[in-house]
Amino acid sequence: MVTLRSIVETDAAEIVQAFERLSAASRYYRFGQHKKHLSGAALERGVHPRPGRDFVFVATTPAADGIDIVGAAQYVPAEERSDKTCEFAITVAEDWRCSGLGTRLLASLLRRARRDGYEVMEGWVLAENAPMRALARKLGFKIEPAPEDATMVLAQRTLQATRGAKVTPRSPRGPARRGATACRCCVRGVRR
Amino acid sequence: MQRPWLVQYPAGIPAEVDFRRYASLKEMFAASCARFAELPAYSSMGTVMTYRQLDEASRAFAAWLQNSAGLKRGDRVALMMPNLLQYPVALFGVLRAGMVVVNTNPLYTPRELEHQLNDSGAKVIVVLENFAHTVQEVIAATGVRTVVTTEVGDLLPPIKRALTNTVVKHVRKLVPPWQLPGAVPFGSALAAGRAQHFDEPTLTREDLAFLQYTGGTTGVAKGTMLTHGNMVANVLQVAAWVAPNLIDGEETLVIPLPLYHVFALTACLSFVLKGAQTVLIANPRDLRTFLHVLRHTRFTAIIGVNTLFRALLDAPGFAEVDLRHLKIAVAGGMAVQRAVAQRWKQRVGIPLIEGYGLTETSPVAIANPITIAEWSGQIGVPIPSTEAAILDDDGAPVALGQVGEICLRGPQAMKGYWNRPEETAKVFTADGWLRTGDMGVMDERGGIRITDRKKDMIIVSGFKVFPNEIEDVVTMHPGVLEAGAIGVPDARSGEAVKVVVVRKDPTLTEAALLEHCKQHLTGYKLPRIVEFPAEPLPKTNIGKILRRALRDSPPIARVQAASAVAA
User: Which residues does residue A71 pair with via DSSP β-bridges, in sequence order?
Assistant: First the structure.
């Protein structure tokens, strides 16, 4: 039902549609600011990853116009001069949360980054983004608060083949029911 | 669970309150009206309303809501007024009819009002005429069926009423023209309701009392569902905490904070429980009038935010206010500054009692004991029947003295967010702890200190502002490419909104941008500082904003006002 593959240039239109379907909160978490549109330049860079340095996975499902992109995970070098550390970002469509897709995307991204020769993967996460923090911890990332800014944390993990949690991603369960929040990522409260 | 904070409880303060004592606010209100019937309940602009009068008027409004407005139990009614006698009449009218109050800031812009009315599904709105023009702009796009309008002086005695309304409308011109066909004057609704049958519902703890709106990273406000059980519990908890010196039927509380803000609301209800008189201050920023009221009132209690207490201390007229009868002063909503606490204690003789909580906890959860001698730098200890814990990411307690997220548990914790089950699930841990978004430490005596804030939020004089919403509005302007909003320290308001704006149109001025913001954002959300950097906002390689860099950026190329721009 869901296919993971590397991004291609012709995905640009679907990426824009996927962005439009994201909630304001999800865009805020992904970009750290309110964002109405993807800039042309950002889109260009996104669909043209530089082999060996960048990578973008997209998760697709069949749709009337061919495919829908329901998730994306990417990395780029964390600093232009560094070939050891990559910076990652991951986005999952609203109705695909809690389906295992995020886990699958991030696990695949980790393997891919290792193959590209990176030794460390890191990403900035808004501190209140509990599901992202939980996903990162589940996949062996350490979470550290940003210096002098409790609103952000840095998720970081080394990419040595022998270290880190072994994760066997399940195939995604399909879109969650609207309002279903039973998975550990969202840690549902127990009502009195 | 261990409650180390109990050692700090002053003598006579119980560890638990019997929060089942009343099944609903309606029941509590009825008990107070019966017990304190002839005593003053509220006073506004020199006019007093007794508990009996309040009982009778609110019952009339309740009957009108049922019969003329055709509302049923559980329906939402928006109240959009400053602190006037009409507010408690409408408030208790809605509550005793089993309907749900949606407190609405009268200074909302049409955009903010429209969202709240639609999200809540309010069918009736009670609005002060001064703000009816805002309602007019959006009403067609909402589900509101009936508008009740009221003029400032409506519940004052006839001559005073006529005079006040004339001054407001024709002398001070505070009522922008409005047209709402079918709008019902508040006085007419009460008159009709007096002749109508009121069907008394029996309410339970689970019934909703309030949808209290609060913002978030979603960018739009969410309705916090506060049940009768939540509110009764918090009223009893607060009353127990401030109780030792207070005598039923003998206290006078001054409320300068707006009752549509949950801190003032619960404080007010706690004093209704105790049969106190509450003096309503409609506009605390009109310091002259505020001080005039203080000078002519024998008040025994006051609530406020740090900004307000500081303003009072700085006001020359405050020296003439008789504070000899003041028994308690409570500060909430924002951090109390040490300097303000010390000056207050020196001038007034009693300490400022700082409390803490969230809309989601009705709101009071933690407070300093009323016996503290001086500013503690802490938000205090959990109040009766409340637990606090410092938890890590997994919801597990951190070691004593370590920083973690302050989490709360108690009967005052909200039922959830209205129609947002995912948001609700995110804010509670698996063990039912409510995550506050504040980082802090607890000491061995259960005292809690806030160290930082995890929530990406700005607190301006006790009002919460969310960057996502500010950035949304700023980027609506066609001359703006992108923007980042951040809080910066401000001596007067605690924090202020700063926005860093990358322009598409290099001729866009700060003044023009602020004019645009004023159309979509109510006053406290407006950016105080606007910067136009020459370069794009600092981002990581993957395109994430480094938010802390926004705070520290030096003022770059601050552009002068429109006079410099060619026509």
Answer: A59, A92
